[in-house]
Write a structure and sequence with these properties.
By secondary structure, the chain is an alpha/beta fold. It is built from three helices and eight strands; from the N terminus they run H-E-H-E-E-E-E-E-E-H-E. The chain has two domains: 41 residues; 164 residues, Leucine-rich repeat, LRR (right-handed beta-alpha superhelix), CATH 3.80.10. Helix 3 links the parallel strand 7 and strand 8.
């Protein structure tokens, strides 16, 4: 004799059927929601954690376009923009690894220039700087600093705050002060001082501070400077 299914069995079967069909309906929606979420968070996640070398990333030269998506910009080249002061909107680019501000008219830098915690290369070549601003010394991840073709008069005493610095390019300045702290730059590989008027004694001093490093000097002048 055929058994009639119990009410409890019917209820369980019905619930299983409901769950099965709900899963079929919700799965695409959940997948779409996760996709949208990843698109929204993607730039922040990639910028902070991507293992892609920064020097292969896109170079942004259109400042207005870059300002529309600052979290995606790793490399920003703003050459020949006739800037005398650095635009405060530059602070929006929190993921920058490289900034190039060559051939402007910049004569000073704002204190917040040291806020770019990921920055590894900074070039402000061909401007009107007369010193190495204190804010730059807060860039603890900086590996290359190019301040060539300015009017810089000396290297600051606390230059060794740039603990990861590998290349310091200062050609065509008027540098007359070379602090002992240069010797504390453990990772420094190159110091370019071409076209700075240096005496024989000054060049000897720098060589003693940085033995075994790649140093570039012009022929020494027949002059004496008071340090």
């Amino acid at each position: 004799m055929r058994k009639t299914p119990s009410a409890s069995w019917d209820k369980k079967e019905a619930m299983a059927c409901v769950n099965h069909n709900m899963n079929r309906l919700l799965a695409p929606s959940l997948g779409m929601a996760l996709t949208v979420l990843s698109m929204c968070l993607g730039p922040y996640h990639v910028s902070a954690q991507s293992s892609v070398p920064w020097d292969t990333a896109k170079v942004w030269t259109d400042y207005d376009a870059a300002l529309q998506r600052p979290e995606q910009v790793w490399r920003l080249h703003l050459t020949k923009r006739k800037w005398k002061d650095v635009d405060v909107r530059l602070r929006r680019f929190r993921q920058l690894r490289e900034i190039v501000l060559d051939k402007n008219k910049i004569d000073s830098l704002p204190p917040w220039i040291g806020e770019f915690e990921h920055l590894e290369r900074l070039s402000i070549r061909g401007n009107k700087l007369t010193n190495i601003p204190q804010g730059l010394l807060n860039l603890s991840n900086l590996r290359e600093l190019d301040l060539s073709d300015n009017d810089i008069e000396g290297i600051p005493e606390d230059i060794d705050a740039l603990v990861k610095l590998e290349r310091l390019l200062l050609w065509s300045n008027v540098i007359g002060h070379f602090p002992p702290s240069l010797s504390h730059l453990a990772f420094l590989e190159e110091l370019d001082l071409l076209n700075n008027e240096m005496s024989v004694d000054e060049q000897i001093w720098v060589r003693e501070l940085l033995p075994g490093r790649r140093l570039s000097f012009s022929p020494p002048c027949q002059c004496q400077f008071n340090d």
